[in-house]
């Protein structure tokens, strides 16, 4: 077989892979726990791009990194198909469908102001409460890990300070590595691949430059017209770089940064977007597309700049995680058997679930403080909260259908 013919086959296979990833971006609902089975059905079982062992190994590695684990999984799989360019195209094919829908929602004031969003807040409160209940089961059984989870959750609720997130992650990892001593399963040792230091350098340089500019401008955001977009880019990049634990942790961090600390979104606007996200395909990190568009709207910018906010959310939230996988994946094979690292990652995951507990406490406290038992709307919202918990517990109805149900009920009720 000639080299030209082989190249044509490889390109055709790459195009087929991108079409498959784009289809997943349109149809993969339900978050990471549902994404991986769908990846397996389409990329492994149907088209045989990879073996199931490759898929599970890549996803296990990405689950240990900050950032969107399923997006990082798709990025590495694209890299395996055709190098860095295919990795970038795979990321776009996966993220753009959901990001486009979130952009349309964010730029549609009539939709966001409609009466059928009245049950978004109780639904989101129930989703977060159920997320804590579900994810606490995934914490490695250890008194220390459970203490990290509870401590981070309560301290975060009481302090409401953004510095808690990086400090909490660092202290949780160091404490777990130092004091946890439970038995870990043996893993086969593999030779590490060459390290691409420029990717780690890029992460650090962007973090320092954008963080420094963002810090200066945040002290005087009216200094120039571009101040707000730059500050939002810095905030989103930092959240994307520190979001251990996936979309729920990102929601907790963005709630603290955009609702509690800077007041760029009202709790209702935030909950509306977070509720609608449950019915969106693709990565949950697309939530930052909506959040930044609404933040630009809060600052009084026109639709063009609100669209710029959507682009800021899309680029800034995915950039650090993408650079991280290109740096860390080559050395993963050599480090995955290190006990201290594995203990540290268990503690970091416990802290991530603690951040979700913080968000659940904040949003539920806001919801329940505004409830008045004798008012009809309050009784309806309590019913929506209870119904959402019940439907989630049965595990028989996918989350997009729960969101659609709440939207329909809100739409059918008289204003």
Structural features:
76% helix; mainly alpha; 415 residues
At a glance:
This protein has 18 helices and no strands. It has helices at residues 3-27, 32-46, 52-63, 69-82, 84-106, 109-112, 120-135, 143-159, 164-179, 197-218, 227-242, 247-261, 267-277, 287-298, 303-335, 339-369, 376-394, 399-412. Helix 1 packs antiparallel against helix 4 and helix 4 (69-82) crosses helix 15.
The average pLDDT value, as a whole number, equals 80
Beta-strand content bin: under 5%
Helix content: over 70%
Rg value: 21 Å
User: If helices are DSSP runs of H or I spanning 4 or more residues, what is the number of helices?
Assistant: 18
- State the shape: globular
Sheet of most strands:
none
Explained architecture:
This protein is mostly helical and 415 residues long. The mean pLDDT is 80. Helix 3 (52-63) packs across helix 4. The chain has 18 helices and no strands. The longest helix is centred in the C-terminal third of the chain and has 33 residues, at 303-335. The protein folds into two domains: 3-97; 101-412, no CATH class. The chain starts with a helix and ends with a helix.
Helix and strand arrangement:
Blueprint: H1 3-27, H2 32-46, H3 52-63, H4 69-82, H5 84-106, H6 109-112, H7 120-135, H8 143-159, H9 164-179, H10 197-218, H11 227-242, H12 247-261, H13 267-277, H14 287-298, H15 303-335, H16 339-369, H17 376-394, H18 399-412
Helix pairs in contact: 1-2, 1-4, 1-5, 3-4, 4-5, 4-15, 5-14, 5-15, 7-13, 7-16, 7-17, 8-9, 8-16, 9-16, 10-11, 10-15, 11-12, 11-14, 11-15, 12-14, 12-16, 13-14, 14-15
């Amino acid at each position: 077989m000639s080299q030209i013919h082989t190249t044509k086959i490889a390109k055709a296979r790459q195009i087929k892979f991108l079409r498959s990833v784009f289809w997943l971006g349109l149809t993969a609902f339900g978050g990471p726990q549902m994404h991986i089975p769908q990846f397996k059905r389409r990329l492994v079982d149907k088209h045989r791009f990879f073996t199931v062992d490759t898929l599970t190994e890549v996803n296990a590695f990405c689950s240990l990194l900050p950032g969107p684990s399923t997006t990082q999984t798709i990025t590495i799989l694209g890299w395996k198909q055709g190098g860095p360019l295919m990795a970038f195209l795979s990321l776009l094919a996966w993220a753009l469908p959901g990001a486009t829908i979130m952009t349309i929602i964010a730029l549609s004031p009539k939709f966001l102001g409609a009466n059928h969003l009245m049950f978004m807040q109780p639904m989101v409160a129930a989703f977060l409460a159920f997320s804590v209940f579900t994810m606490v089961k995934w914490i490695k059984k250890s008194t220390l890990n459970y203490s990290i989870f509870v401590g981070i959750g309560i301290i975060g609720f009481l302090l409401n300070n953004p510095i808690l997130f990086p400090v909490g992650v660092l202290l949780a990892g160091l404490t777990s590595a130092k004091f946890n001593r439970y038995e870990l399963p043996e893993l086969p040792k593999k030779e590490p691949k060459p390290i691409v230091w420029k990717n780690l350098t890029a992460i650090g340089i962007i973090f320092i430059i954008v963080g420094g500019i963002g810090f200066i401008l945040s002290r005087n955001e009216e200094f120039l017209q571009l101040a707000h977009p730059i500050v939002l880019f810095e905030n989103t990049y930092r959240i994307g770089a520190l979001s251990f634990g996936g979309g729920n942790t990102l929601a907790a961090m963005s709630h603290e940064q955009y609702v509690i600390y800077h007041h760029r979104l009202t709790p209702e606007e935030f909950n509306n977007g977070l509720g609608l996200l449950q019915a969106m395909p693709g990565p949950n990190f697309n939530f930052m597309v909506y959040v930044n568009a609404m933040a630009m709207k809060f600052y009084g910018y026109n639709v063009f700049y609100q669209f710029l906010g959507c682009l800021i959310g899309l680029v800034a939230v995915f950039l650090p995680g993408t650079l991280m996988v290109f740096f860390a994946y080559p050395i993963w094979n050599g480090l995955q058997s290190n006990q201290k690292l594995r203990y540290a990652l268990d503690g970091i995951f416990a802290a991530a679930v603690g951040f979700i507990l913080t968000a659940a406490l904040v949003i539920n406290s806001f919801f329940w403080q505004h409830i008045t038992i004798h008012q009809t709307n309050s009784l309806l919202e309590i019913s929506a909260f209870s119904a959402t918990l019940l439907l989630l517990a049965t595990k028989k109805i996918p989350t997009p259908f729960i969101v659609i149900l709440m939207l329909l009920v809100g739409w059918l009720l008289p204003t």
